[in-house]
Amino acid sequence: MKFTKKYLALLTMAGITTHVLALDKNGQYAIKGVGNASCQQFVKVTRNDEPQKFLFAGWLNGYMTAHNQHLKDSFDIASWENVETLGNYLIGHCEKNPQLSFFQASTQMLSELYPKRIIEYVGAENASTGQQSQKIYIQVVQRVQHKLTELKYYSGAIDGKLNEQLKQAVAKFRIDKELPSQTFFDQQFLHALLMAN
C-alpha cells in the first residue's frame, strides 16, 4: 500500500511536518507488514484470539516507536495507554470504519493521541500494589491529580507524586465507578478517569 497525500494532511494536522517524513517525489512511501491488512481482518484476528494478533500488536508498537523518534517535541505518543488498550480502541474504530486499512486506522488513532502525548521525559513514579508494579510518567500522575481535583476526590498538591492522599482519592473513585481494584493506576482506571466524559 502507498502512503498518499490524504494521509500526509492527517499527519501534518497531528504535528508531523513534511521535512521529517521520508517521502518520494510524489509524496508517497510504502507501508509494510500488517499495516496493509484491512480493519476487518484485524478485528477478526483479534476477536478470534488468533496468533496473528501479535503481528498487529508488534506492528503498532513499532509504528508508535517511529512516531516517538520522529515527532518534534515528543517523548511518548501514548502517555499511559498500553498496546492492549490501544488495540481495543482500534477494534471499535475499525468496526465503525471497516473500509480502512490497519495503517489508516492506526494513523487516525495516533492523531487523536497526539495532543496528550508526553512531550519531555521528566521522570516516572512507581505505582505498585502488592506484587505488581508499573512506572507512570509524572505528567500522567499530574493529569490524574488534576482530574480528581476537578471531580472533588482530591485536594492535595498537583505535583506528580503518588502520595497517600492520592491513593485514597483513587480508591474512592474506583469504588464510586465500580472499578475492580487491580494495580493502583491500571488501564481501566486511567481510561475511566481520563477518557470518559
Largest sheet: 2 strands, antiparallel
* General shape: globular
Helix content: 40-55%
The count of strands amounts to 2
End-to-end span in angstroms?
36 Å
Can you tell me the number of structural domains?
A: 2
Protein structure class: mainly alpha
**In terms of per-residue confidence, which ranges show pLDDT below 50 for 5 or more consecutive residues?**
none
User: SSE order in H/E notation?
Assistant: HHHHHEEHHH
Number of helices: 8
Strand order of the largest sheet: 1-2
Q: How much is the radius of gyration in Å?
A: 19 Å
Strand content: 5-15%
Mean pLDDT: 88
Report on the architecture of this protein.
With 197 residues, the protein is mainly alpha-helical. The chain folds into 2 domains: 5-116, no CATH class; 124-194. The chain contains 8 helices and 2 strands; from the N terminus they run αααααββααα. A two-stranded antiparallel ribbon has the order 1-2. A hairpin with a 2-residue loop joins strand 1 (124-129) and strand 2 (132-137). Helix 2 (39-47) packs across helix 4 and helix 4 (83-96) packs across helix 5. The two termini are 36 Å apart.
